[in-house]
Structures are given as C-alpha cells and as structure tokens.
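Review box. Two proteins, two foldings.
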Amino acid sequence: MQRRLLVIGNGMSSLRLLEELVALAPGRFDVTVVGAEASPAYNRVLLSPLLAGELAAADVELRPAAWYAENGITLRTGQPVVALDPVGRNAQLRDGQRLAFDVCVLATGSEPILLPLPGSHLAGVTTFRSHDDIATMRAAAATGLPAVVVGGGLLGIEAAYGLARTGAKVTLVHLMDRLMERQLDAEAARLLKRAMEAKGIRVLLRSSTRAILGGRRVRAVELADGRILPAALVVMAVGVKPSIRLAASAGLTTGRGIVVDDKLATSADGVYALGECAEHRSQCYGLIEPAYEQARVLARHLAGRRDRYEGSLLATSLKVSGVPVFSIGDFEGAGGEAVLFEDREAGIYRKLVLRGDRLCGAVLIGDTGEAVWYRELVRQQVSVAAIRGALAFGKAYAEAA
C-alpha cells in the first residue's frame, strides 16, 4: 500500500526532491505537492533575465504541470498551507480543505525581508522574489520614471540589472563598503561595481536608507545623509529569512530555520524539511546547491536507502549583471596566503587562498571557466604544492607544467 507523502512548497528544492523520488522509488508514495504561488516550480535564479526581457516565462519553468500528472503526483497551486498538525498528520489549506499524510516534507523556502522604514507600505514598494514582483517592477519601469534598489547583495544587483535592461534609470543603494560582501573580496567587488556602472546603474556605497517618501505612491527615497533620490519604484532586496511560521505554529523546533538532523528530519516524527527553510547543524543555506544536495539525501532516505547529510561547502557560481562570478570557501584569506591574477583591461580577476599546500578558498570574476576545477581542489583538499606556480592559470596549464 502506498504511503501518503505531502510536500508543502513547490519551489526548486521541492521539485528536485520529487525528481529524485521519481527516479529512485517510482510508485512508492502517493504524492501531493502544494504550492502557494499560482504557477508550478520555476527557476528563481533566472528572474533577472526574465525581468530584463531576455527570457520568456516559459524559459524559467522547470517542469510543466503535465509532468506532475504523468508521474502520479497531485499538484495544488495557489493554495498555501495555513496549519499543520503533525500529531493528527494532516495539513489545512487556505480554502479549509485538509490533506492527510503519512510523511510530510516542509519545503517552504524563504521570504524576503522588508525593512521597517517609514513609507515602506506605499504603492510602488516591492521585493524581488516572485513572478508577481516581476509584474510590479515591469509596470513601474514602463512609466520611464527612476527606480531605487535598496541592497547590494546578489538579489539587489540582479534587480538593478534587470531594471536597467528595461531602460529604467536605476540607483542602487548599499549600506556596506562593497557589493556582495559575503561572496566577493574588495577587488572583485570593485570590478563588479565598475561593470554595473558601465551598464548605466548608479551605485551608492556606504549609504543608509532613512525613509521612503510619498503620499499613496512612492515619489522618492531619503538617505540618512539627507540626500533625496527621486523614485517611482523602490525594490527592497536586503536579503531573505527562512519561512518557519508554519513549522513554529505546529510546535516543531525552530531556530533561524526549521531544525533538522542529518536525515533532514524535524523534531516531529515523520516530518522533514529541506532547502532554505531548514537549519542543519546551526547553518541555514540561502543557495540552491545545498538545497539540491539535501533533496538527494532525503530522497534516498525516503526510498529506504542509507544516506546522511553532512553539510555543504558554500560556493557561488553565477552570472551577475552579465558578469561571471564564482567564489568558494575562505576567499578572504585571513591567516592564509593569496595567489593573485588580474587583467584589469579585460575585467578578469582571480584570487586563490592557500593554507600550507592546500587550496581553501577562491574568488573569480570575469572568467569562471576554471571554477569546477578550483571547486574540486577546495573540496578534496589535495596538495597543490607541485602546481603552485601554475595554479592561477588553470587546470590545463598546471597539468602541462
């Protein structure tokens, strides 16, 4: 007899879990997946090119609705779960319907942080997280009036780039002294800032937002130093936080995220969590690769195979505002030795951090063709003493040397 599996959340990590289960244990579960958004899972990483018009909505769709049906999965979209009863083993949807389960997986993801600034409630203030946000941003950009993006992390940069590509006049405001300070060192961030400015984006660093001004709609942003930035659109892109309200209200153990063990099990029997909502060994991951690793482990566990999640090595590999960027491990290099390669004219920069004869971190910008090789050197922690002099020039050169 099939066990009833309820997956709450239909994002990228949820879909990867379903794909793994279809491959490992077809027919083992009677699966229902419930998503709060109206559309099936899509690639959030591609929201910026979608906003820019470089991609169509179909291009960011991961699996069509028909795929779920073909694999015996019941898909419910536009119906968030409002209550979870882990003892009675059921979940209540917004429309009042209750779904019974034997096993439940929470893949509720994360939610954008909205700064509690004066005026943050005004029309024209949005976040950058979903299809709905894209629609709001496109409508505002069509007016031809300026836009302000608050936050110089990955989301903020992607929002600014997407808006600039629509033709909007964009100012990016960031509190810190460099862009993407969690993923880039100072020099890589400088090169990224230069690339963004070349695309017409004004970048203001060390700048704090005091208030959003307007009546019913946004008309300007006031900075802490008194500067006023005219704006018809304000995009809050200051980060995300794990979505744990459902789990907390159900009595599950939570910290920053939903606390899970090495099997991705929560404190409630038969209830698991993965992805951005999960907290494993006091760590919440905001990147997709750890979520995919968790999905593989959990699928194997649910399929009856032994596997454990030991944590993930943080790495960022993507194209930011059209510029390839990669970082992994301890790229700041405190207590280590840095090997540098830079071609300022071409906008290429590599920083490799060594401790002894082991590579412990790397940051690349402009050319990330060797990212996979560097990633494996960091993960495997093999000696690079024999190729140290050629390390900055890539795998082929190092092997030849």
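Next protein.
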Amino acid sequence: MNGNPERECMKSRTSADSYSSVLHCVVNLLGATCAAVSICVGILLCGPVLEALALPPADEVLRQLEISDRDRQRIREGELVTWTATEGSDRELALGMALLVKTKAENLTDLFREAATFMNIKVITAFGKIGNTGFGNIENGTRADFAGVTLAPNGEKEARRYLEVEPGNDLNLDAREMAAFRVLKSAGKDGTAPIQEVEALIREGLLARYQAYRTKGLAGIAPYARKSGRHLLASDELSISLKQSKVLAKYLPSVYDALVKYPVTNLKQGEEFEEQFLWINSEVLGRPTYALSHRTLFRVGEAYVFVDRQYYASHDYNCLQQGAVALQTESGTVVVYLSRVSTEQVAGFGSSVKKSASRVLMTPYFKDLLEALRAQAEKQ
C-alpha cells in the first residue's frame, strides 16, 4: 500500500461533507487496521476446504451472505466485490469484500505468523509481541513486552490528555486507570509530569488489560468510562459482532464457540488452534492510538480460519473484529473478508447516512490494498 490514508481521504470527499470530520476519522482508524487485513487474506489461500469442512459450494455460501447473482458472477470473472453485512447496533460499521485468487499459498503462513506486513503500513508507527516470541506458548506478559510503547506522534500534547483525562470519548480508560493518571498529575510540579512517567503508566495499563483478557476473555475486558456515569463495554460490542456471524456459527461451530468462550477452546480431535498477542501503535489524525490485538488461527481439516480481535483501542474506536474464510473452487480460491468495527463516530443521529458515506470513502482504499495483495499472492 502506498500513500497516506489521511491524504487519500481528503481527496475522496463526497456529498456527505456535513459528516466530513466523522468520516475522516473513521477512514483513518480503519486504515490503521489494514495490516491485519493483508495478513488474513494471505493465510487463507489454502488447499481443498470444501471436503474438509463439508461446506456447500462456494457459490451457495456467497448466496447465504446475500451476495447477489450478478456479484457472484463478477467474482468468478476476477472482480473484487464489496458487500454489506448486517450490523448489530448503530455503533457497528461492517465492511465485506470477496475475491477470487489463483494461487498456491503454502508459503504465506509465515507472513501471518511473523506479522511482517506491519512494517509496510505507514499509519502503524510501532508494534510488539506480548507474552511470546511467535506463535506457540503464550506467557503471562511483562512490562518489557511493552517497552516500545511511546507517546508518538505529538507526545507532549497526548501526555496532557492523559493527565487531564475525564470520563468521555477523548480516551478509552476505566475509572481506575483515570485515577492513576490524576495521582501522577497531582504528584508532579505545576500539575505536570515527565512524559516518560506518563508512558510508563500507559504501559502498565496495557499490560493489565492484556493479562485480564488472557485470563478471562471477554469477561476480563475493563469498561470505558463515559460521561453521566455511563460505561461502554467493549466485550458487549464484540459479542454483538459475533452474533452477526451466522454462517461461521453454522458451518464452523467449534471456531465460533472458541471465539465466544475464549480462553476455553473445546476443539474436536484433529482441529488445531494457534494464537498471538500484539500491541500496535498507529497514527490516527495525528494522535498515537494504542490497540491490543488477539490474532487466532484455526485449522479444521485442511481449512484455515483467521480472526483478528482488537479488544482494546485507546481512542476513536471501541474495538474491532475481522477475519476471513477461503472457499476452494475449480478456478481458484474465493476469499471472503469481513471487518466489524465499533465506533461512536457513526452512532446517533444520521447513523445510516454516516455509515453509508463511510463505506463509500473506505471502499477504494481497501480495494487497492486487496488487489495489491492478490497480485503478490499470485506470484508465489
């Protein structure tokens, strides 16, 4: 992917200018997750899926996803098709794409396991692995895993946000995390604190959130404190996203159950599960945005299913869940990708209009990315 997504967003203004600031933010925050998109497409270009999973033909699965006859034909002819999935709330924005890839992709698993694509995504300024050196044994995590977390870009300005944080949408923190920053502020000179001390407190918060999720799954995700005493639970938002995954629940129930019940994974004999945890810092509208990502790879027979769950984001979106499935056909592998992001940027009055306009702006960005990945994959 080339270019700056913020600049591309500015070039792509539509008639929905009344929502320009909201859409600008949405496009940037989704652009920050595109590395995971590239990885999920790469890993799922696998061998004969249908026999292993007893799935119906690819065309029937696409039909169940409400992809029209005309669009299914376009996929067979090599076009990349977008589709609109059902959304569980006015905060959820779903984007689906499907394409046919003619390739053998046995060697692409390393691309997923090593997260190498992150290095080529300009909005991602840094990332690191948590509790492990790769896929395999996951440990409890330490402060050292987060040593690369820094307040960049615009560190001084962002540090002030943390020191002056109040319940609301400016930062996604719970009451205990906010109290820790207030203590740090009060202990400092003139209500300030060295940026290094703010960064250290951010690292502690990220570590605590990782350990709670690793131990308890969705139930361990701390809420975001909002105004008027309200709280927003990313666990509820992720559960809403999962409930929309009816095709996954129907044909791959063990994968669906593992996502719902994590860290419990009651897979059947012969089914395999791998996981990896990452922290990611991406630049969204000139601000550092920290996300905690749980990336899972399921092998059921000869099929691979990839899911990336961002169970924490520091601002502008609440959480994100995306994944892909591959369906073998005579002419290649149909890859279906779906992303669901929870963000209050598209909620409230005019939600349907904001979502529609957001998709218009996002579609060319993601199409270019997936087309480039297809070309790369077919060279393997």
